[in-house]
């Protein structure tokens, strides 16, 4: 007998924009989606089963990781039943329906690999940085001039990096050479003069405890950066650099990896800078 369809509790208006939900949808991890959905709505598995027209036992198995959702039909049922924005799941909009304004791409011309665009780095939720770092299993790449906000704003940032390499990940960290002309020019353009070089030295101090840790490479570069790049396995945050403005005031694009797209374009840029860099210590 099919499950009885029961009304679902109302969901918070920003549910689909919460960093943990954005991450779960991007990975098509329906177990995590259900866990987060139930946390913020209080919905029971029976209510979800009825709304999605699937057995309650399947809901339980999906939530607890014993069953993976691979069927397009089930993705469709869950999206329709729970009101999940369709595009983050890789589903086409239904005719006559409007995309979710925040979580979905606003038009067909926007590549599917773009998860979201933030107007400035300060608009990126702090928890998103942490969730992406915690979720990385193989690779963390950072290309910045200073990037002081990460170790300065997250007290356990260096400890998380250490934990990543202990679990088998490789970390490549590129900072601007504080003695380089590129850093001096960027400091002048931002109106902070040698303040940028000072910020780089502070970041190096934070990272110094990783100096002898296998799996961590910290290098210095002397290139003119046009974007800061933060890669966490198949996810990447790209922070634009704008003349006369600090990176913190400039837009950030959240990308997920696809074949031959923007992700690979920026990843190739990282590799080119890495090839010109030298060890920080």
In short:
The chain is of the alpha+beta class and 281 residues long.
Q: Would you kindly provide a written description of the structure presented here, covering whatever features stand out?
A:
This protein is an alpha+beta fold. The chain folds into 2 domains: 15-89, Orthogonal Bundle (434 Repressor (Amino-terminal Domain)); 114-279, Endonuclease, Chain A (2-Layer Sandwich), CATH 3.30.870.10. It contains 11 helices and 8 strands. It has helices at residues 19-26, 30-41, 45-52, 56-63, 72-82, 126-135, 149-153, 157-166, 181-190, 195-207, 262-276; strands spanning 114-118, 139-143, 170-176, 216-221, 227-232, 235-240, 252-256, 278-279. It has an 8-stranded mixed beta sheet, with helices on both faces. A hairpin with a 2-residue loop joins strand 5 and strand 6. Helix 2 (30-41) packs across helix 4 (56-63), helix 3 (45-52) packs across helix 4 (56-63) and helix 3 (45-52) packs across helix 5. The longest helix has 15 residues, at 262-276. Mean pLDDT is 88; it is low at 101-108.
Give the SSE map.
Blueprint: H1 19-26, H2 30-41, H3 45-52, H4 56-63, H5 72-82, E1 114-118, H6 126-135, E2 139-143, H7 149-153, H8 157-166, E3 170-176, H9 181-190, H10 195-207, E4 216-221, E5 227-232, E6 235-240, E7 252-256, H11 262-276, E8 278-279
Parallel strand pairs: 2-3, 3-4
Antiparallel strand pairs: 1-7, 2-5, 4-8, 5-6, 6-7
Helix pairs in contact: 1-2, 2-4, 3-4, 3-5
């Amino acid at each position: 007998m099919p499950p009885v369809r029961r009304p679902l509790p109302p969901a918070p208006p920003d549910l689909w924009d919460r960093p943990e939900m954005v991450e779960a949808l991007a990975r098509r991890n329906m177990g995590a989606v259900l866990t987060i959905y139930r946390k913020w709505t209080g919905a029971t598995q029976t209510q979800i089963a009825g709304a999605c027209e699937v057995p309650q036992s399947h809901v339980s198995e999906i939530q607890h990781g014993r069953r993976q959702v691979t069927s397009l039909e089930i993705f469709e049922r869950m999206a329709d039943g729970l009101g999940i924005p369709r595009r983050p799941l890789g589903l086409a909009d239904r005719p006559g329906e409007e995309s979710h304004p925040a979580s979905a791409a606003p038009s067909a011309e926007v590549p599917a690999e773009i998860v979201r665009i933030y107007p400035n780095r300060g608009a990126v939720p702090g928890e998103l940085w942490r969730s992406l770092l915690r979720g990385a299993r193989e690779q963390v790449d950072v290309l910045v001039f200073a990037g002081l906000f990460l170790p300065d704003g997250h007290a356990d940032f260096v400890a998380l990096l250490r934990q990543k390499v202990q679990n088998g990940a490789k970390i490549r960290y590129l900072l601007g050479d504080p003695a380089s002309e590129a850093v001096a020019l960027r400091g002048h353009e931002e109106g902070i003069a040698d303040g940028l070089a000072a910020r780089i030295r502070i970041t190096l101090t934070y990272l110094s405890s990783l100096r002898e840790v296998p799996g961590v490479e910290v290098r210095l570069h002397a290139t003119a950066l046009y974007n800061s790049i933060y890669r966490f396995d198949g996810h990447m945050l790209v922070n634009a650099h704008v003349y006369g403005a600090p990176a913190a005031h400039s837009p950030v694009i959240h990308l997920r990896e696809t074949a031959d797209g923007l992700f690979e374009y920026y990843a190739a840029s990282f590799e080119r800078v890495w090839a010109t860099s030298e060890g920080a210590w």
